[in-house]
Write a structure and sequence with these properties.
This protein is of the alpha+beta class. 34% of the residues lie in helices and 26% in strands. The strands form three sheets. It has a seven-stranded mixed β-sheet. It is globular, with a radius of gyration of 22 Å. It starts with a helix and ends in a 19-residue tail after the last strand.
Length: 422
C-alpha cells in the first residue's frame, strides 16, 4: 500500500475516534460511512435483533432502509453465525462480524469502488480493525440513549425483560483459556431467568438463576439474587457465603416465600477443578470430546431464599476441551402440541450434534435455543436459559473474528452446507 493510501486509512480511523467521544447512537453508522468514503469504500451496519433471528440495518441518514436479513439465509448472517469475514455475493466487498470482545453484535459490510483492490490482505485486515472499533463504540454509545436498542428490537419488551436487559452481562465472554456464552428466550418477555459470570486471574465464576413465576416480580427476584451474590463475590466471599447472602436478601425483600433456583460454579482454569453449589436447580451437563459424559449431581441445597445452611459443595475434575452446560427447567419442560416435553435426552442429543459441528459457543447455544423454540406449541410457558462454558483455547479461537480468503472454499461446519445465501 502506498504512503498516500496508508495516510487515508489512518485519517479515517482518526475521524471515527475523534468523533466517538460525542457520538449519539443515531450518528454512529453515518460517521463510519463518512470516514470510509474518501477511501472509495461504502459501509452498511447491521445489528442482530434481541432474539438472534435477524440482522437489522442501522440507518446512516433519513432515507428508507432495507428490511431485516435472516441469520439463517444470508451471507451477512453467515458472517455473524460463524464469526468470520466472508466475501459478498458478486465479490465486490466483505461482510465482517462486529463483536465487542467476543460478544456478537452484528456485521459491517464494506463495498469497494472499482479502483480499490478488495482482495488485498492488508485492506481486509484494516476493514476488520474498523469493524472491531465499531463493536466497542456500539457498546459505549448504546448506553447514552435508546436508539441502538430500538434498532435491535422487533417489538416492545415487557417490564420484566426490560429490567433484566439492564442487569445481564454480555451474552459471550472469553479469555485465553475459556469461553462462556449464554442465551435467553423469549427475549422480549423473559421474566425470572438470568445468568452471571466473572473471569478473574485463575478463576472463572459462572451462575444461572431461575426466579419462581413470571413477569416483573420474577425478574425482581432474579435481580435481588444476582445483586446479592455479586456483592458477596466482589467482597471476596466463597460460594457458601454468596448463596447465604442471596438467602438473606430475598427473605428481606419478599414476604411471599419467593425463591430462586440457581447453580453457582467456580472453575480453576489452571487445574480444571470445578466447585459448585446447586440450589434446587437442574443438574449441569458435562460434555467431553463432543459427547455427554454425565450430569453433575453434587452440591445440593434448597433454592435461594429458603435459608438452607447446609455446607455442601460439589466438585468435578474437568479435562481440557470439556464443555459444561447449565440450563433452566423451561428448556426441558417445553411442550409440543401433544404435550410431550423436550426433555433432557433431546437436549443432550442436540448438544452433542452441535458440538460435533465445531461451532463457536454462542452459535451452538443459539441453535440449541432454536431447537427448544421449534418444539414449543404456541408461546413459551416458561423462560428458557442456557449457559455454556468451554475450557479450551480452541473454543476461544472460534469466538474471535477470522478471515476467509476467496480461494479457501467454504469450510463450513456440518449443518451449514446447502444453506441458501444472499
Amino acid at each position: 500500500m502506498s504512503d498516500a493510501g496508508e495516510a487515508l486509512w489512518l485519517e479515517a480511523l482518526g475521524r471515527v475516534l475523534d468523533r466517538s467521544h460525542l457520538f449519539q447512537g443515531d450518528e454512529l453508522a453515518g460517521a463510519v460511512g463518512a470516514a470510509m468514503a474518501p477511501l472509495g469504500i461504502r459501509t452498511v451496519l447491521y445489528l442482530v435483533d434481541e432474539e438472534q433471528r435477524d440482522l437489522r440495518i442501522v440507518p446512516q441518514d433519513a432515507r428508507p432502509v432495507a428490511g431485516p436479513l435472516s441469520l439463517e439465509a444470508s451471507l451477512p448472517g453467515r458472517a455473524f453465525r460463524l464469526v468470520e469475514t466472508v466475501l459478498m455475493a458478486g465479490g465486490d466487498g466483505w461482510w465482517v462480524p462486529v463483536v465487542n470482545g467476543t460478544d456478537r453484535l452484528g456485521v459491517l459490510g464494506f463495498t469497494f469502488a472499482d479502483d480499490v483492490d478488495r482482495h488485498d490482505d492488508l485492506t481486509r485486515r484494516r476493514c476488520q480493525t474498523i469493524a472491531g472499533l465499531v463493536g466497542h463504540l456500539i457498546t459505549v454509545t448504546a448506553a447514552k440513549g435508546d436508539y441502538l436498542m430500538q434498532v435491535r428490537r422487533a417489538r416492545p419488551m415487557s417490564d420484566g425483560a426490560e429490567l433484566l436487559s439492564q442487569i445481564l452481562p454480555p451474552m459471550t465472554v472469553s479469555c485465553k483459556r475459556l469461553t462462556l456464552s449464554a442465551v435467553l428466550e423469549p427475549r422480549y418477555d423473559i421474566g425470572g431467568d438470568g445468568y452471571d459470570y466473572a473471569l478473574d486471574g485463575e478463576f472463572a465464576r459462572m451462575a444461572i438463576f431461575d426466579g419462581v413465576g413470571r413477569g416483573l416480580r420474577a425478574g425482581l427476584a432474579y435481580a435481588v439474587a444476582v445483586t446479592a451474590t455479586r456483592a458477596a463475590r466482589r467482597a471476596g466471599h466463597d460460594l457458601h457465603e454468596q448463596v447465604r447472602a442471596a438467602d438473606a436478601a430475598l427473605l428481606e425483600q419478599f414476604d411471599d416465600a419467593r425463591f430462586v433456583t440457581a447453580v453457582l460454579g467456580e472453575l480453576n482454569m489452571a487445574t480444571g477443578v470445578l466447585r459448585y453449589i446447586n440450589a434446587g436447580h437442574p443438574a449441569p451437563l458435562l460434555l467431553r470430546g463432543g459427547k455427554f459424559i454425565r450430569e453433575l449431581p453434587g452440591g445440593r441445597r434448597m433454592p435461594l431464599g429458603l435459608n438452607d445452611t447446609r455446607e455442601r459443595v460439589g466438585t468435578e475434575q474437568l479435562e481440557p476441551g470439556d464443555r459444561l452446560l447449565f440450563y433452566t427447567d423451561g428448556v426441558i419442560e417445553a411442550r409440543d402440541a401433544n404435550g410431550a416435553m423436550f426433555g433432557v435426552e433431546a437436549l443432550i442429543d442436540h448438544a452433542e450434534r452441535h458440538a460435533a459441528d465445531g461451532l463457536p459457543a454462542p452459535e451452538m447455544l443459539r441453535r440449541l435455543a432454536r431447537a427448544v423454540g421449534a418444539h414449543h406449541s404456541g408461546p413459551a410457558a416458561d423462560d428458557t436459559t442456557l449457559v455454556l462454558t468451554e475450557w479450551s483455547p480452541e473454543a476461544v479461537h472460534r469466538s474471535i473474528p477470522t478471515l476467509r480468503h476467496p480461494g479457501d472454499g467454504p469450510h463450513l461446519p456440518r449443518g451449514d452446507e446447502g444453506r441458501p445465501d444472499r
